[in-house]
């Protein structure tokens, strides 16, 4: 902190509008048939994810861009490589007196303002004059060498924070992949011939109704797998889901019954509570699945809650742990998603999952698997511990220093830190 204060102590600053010192350049549209997945240069249009790739570039590396159309209008970006700017992207022409990465970090702090100036009638659009009128601080305006030195030092500090956050994000992704690997391996039980014979004898357990009313063999939805080096030992019995759980549907509450805060969360058509209610209809330690809206999403609650009518929840029997059921169903999530009827409101029928096959190891083995997977789950998803919490803290730290480093005084006043 003291080094940063020293860096900014007594800095003379001149504020200029972007329109005074540079040009806002609009790109040129390319039709989709000109794009390729294999060409060299990314093409940006309406977002910071490349629309495709092109054999030529119209903007150099080290360029700041601002999306001007679509849902991402007002979003600030930076490219470290040459690229093609489409007409859904404004680029800021490079200039000698301003470090482009310095400009990028400053504009990130103005992103909320830019988004607030987007015209939302029809296709969201950001006008160039909004950007041109933005005021930009130029430290030591009469000493180009000193000005660029302080800009570069600010960039170096902020780059270090950005790099740390990026490394944590990469670590989180690696841990998620590791979690998925171990989860799939730990739950990859082989199906014995006796289990297959038993299931074949139960005609109702050998097929499932698809969203288009066609019939699909369960073996293709939930195929048995071979032995794994991580697979726990012990006898496993395969069961149809409806044999080992009671599947219940929640009960709708009307909006005027809900509160903004309260004891019991109400889940309706997604994993974000619709509101709160003074009663619960489901007890803690329950796995549930959304049947409309975000249909197919699987959740688990360690506290009592209210399930509305777009939620199915599972009441487990004595030989099945609810948390084990949750981890297993997560391995089946993509298969469950494939059974969602896609219409104006996506819907999932109970018949789409009630006959899924599930392995039932001993309770001791279930607890062992749950203890392993819960540790990975906490590391990759918890907002109170693990990597997500660390990323949140680092992001806040980065934003704090970015705002502090770029909070220059106006009207050419020297920046003087409060000694106290």
TrEMBL record:
Protein name: Restriction endonuclease subunit S
GO biological process: DNA restriction-modification system
InterPro entries: Restrct_endonuc_typeI_TRD (IPR000055), Restrct_endonuc_typeI_TRD_sf (IPR044946), Type-I_RE_S_subunit (IPR051212)
PANTHER family: TYPE I RESTRICTION ENZYME ECOKI SPECIFICITY SUBUNIT, TYPE-1 RESTRICTION ENZYME ECOKI SPECIFICITY PROTEIN
Family designation: Belongs to the type-I restriction system S methylase family.
Molecular function terms from GO: DNA binding; endonuclease activity
Provenance organism: Bacteroides stercoris
Lineage start: Bacteria, Pseudomonadati, Bacteroidota, Bacteroidia, Bacteroidales
Start and end residues of each Type I restriction modification DNA specificity domain: 12-172, 237-392
UniProt entry keywords in alphabetical sequence: DNA-binding, Endonuclease, Hydrolase, Nuclease, Restriction system
Pfam families: Methylase_S (PF01420)
